[in-house]
Amino acid sequence: MNSSRRQFLARTAAGATVVAGGTFTANHAAALNWPAATTAAPRITALTDVTVIDPANGRRDRHQTVLLAGERILAIGRHLPVPHGATELRLSGKFVIPGLADMHVHSLGDEHVSPPLYLANGLTMVREMAASDPTLYSWRDRIDAGTLLGPRMIVGSQIIDGDPTLWDPNLLRVLVVHDEAGARAAVRQVKAEGADFVKVYSRLSPAAYRAILDEARRQGLTVHGHGPDQVPVKEVSKAGQRSIEHIHALGLSVSSREAEVRRMQRAIKIGTGDYNGWFRQMHPIEWIAANSYSRARAADVFGTLRRNRTRVTPTLTMHQVLDTPDFSAPDPATRKYLSADSIGTYDYVIEDLYKANRSAEEISHQRQMWEYRQRFVRELFAHDVPVLAGTDTGTPYMVPGFALHDELELMVRAGATTQQALTTATVEPARFLGMTADLGSVQPRKIADLVVLDADPLQDIRNTRRIHTVITRGRVISPAMRAQMLADVESAVKSFAQTSGVAAGGCCGTRPPGQ
Length: 515
Hints:
Blueprint (H helix, E strand, L loop, with lengths): L2 H8 L15 H6 L12 E11 L4 E11 L2 E6 L9 E4 L4 E4 L1 E6 L8 H7 L2 E6 L6 H11 L6 E4 L3 E3 L12 E3 L3 H14 L3 E4 L5 H14 L2 E4 L7 H7 L3 E3 L2 H6 L4 H9 L8 H16 L4 H14 L2 E3 L2 H8 L16 H15 L5 H23 L19 H13 L3 H7 L2 H6 L17 E4 L13 E6 L2 E3 L1 H17 L2 E2 L2 E2 L12
Parallel strand pairs: 1-4, 1-5, 6-7, 7-8, 9-10, 11-12, 12-13, 13-14
Antiparallel strand pairs: 1-2, 2-3, 5-15, 15-16, 16-17, 18-19
Helix pairs in contact: 3-18, 5-6, 7-11, 9-10, 10-14, 12-14, 14-15, 15-16
């Protein structure tokens, strides 16, 4: 280490870790959560004259210098000098926020598609909601090892569902369980496969569901996913399920006619793999629930979710597609990042499944349900229910990464403040995963997962799209690098063929929404 860097690191700065005596020792490495064996000076990068935003409280600290050392934030301050030899990024007028997280994705394509699209859009973490292909575990591990560039991945198990399952096991990896013994065996299996959490689904029986939760606790895993059709939402929360995906089950739980709509839901008859049949039979049930919304029941249910810290991932982007399929189409600006095969599959799903054979009344009800879901999300925020931003990427026409910005805009349109929306993609994911020591805010000693924006997202949530630079684990992705990553994805989706919705040589194909 040269003398100027020793002198700099020895300075006392507010919020900085001070390296006394000019030597970067194992003790100093430990203070920054680096491995104890780290004694060599890490590379220093300085982001100068930026506004640092704290989504937790809406604070803006202007004219800051953010110093990065290796993969960590070393110090933040208004008058920090830039040490000799450091890489300085002069970013006057820019805004720094924590890296974004999409907490409900089903990645598309091979490793040359989804991972770079996530990063290029400022996503430094994603929660993969079902290991539809074991390759996803390999992506996660390679990203952690630094051999694949991509966001931090939290990868769920393959879906565990009851019989008949909504999914065709010949087309999608799904574990069908019939009883408690099978449920426990499924949990042990997915742990052995490498799952970070257990993904539960809609058609589980109450006995199997309870067995999954108990076995997951024994195995040291958490449970995320759908609220099963036969288990009321308050029971799901009290039983310890960490997150509930989508609004379907939640909407029934706040109806003054809940007992009636639950009986109707239990009476749904489907064959194996008839996901669309389940959706179509759910429509009139949801309509009754929406038109019997009870403020008293909502306060009770939302209070339970809040007290138990049960997260809700509304996936408004997914619901918008399902509720208004007549208006669903590829975005002309981003369709170049979807393969022709993906678009063809999406066209089929929309035209032949979701738009087909609907009466005028059903179409009208669906559009009104979309308005209701937005009001529902506004109520979640009003009751301080912890909300996670998630898109259900894999739904027709969604582009990985880009979809999260759509979700944040829909939240604000539904009634969330810009700060609340930003929190769902930064602070709350870190809290949910127990990673607040490392992620979720721009503070010394935390991992340098950051997004540099050209404009203030607290002024207009659409400014999360105005990305200048992305930093993942201390690695700087410059504007030029971002542009090249996007160009490479555009080339990649043109170059590989897909068969039956699965990318050749890759991971994950297209799928109907709702996972």
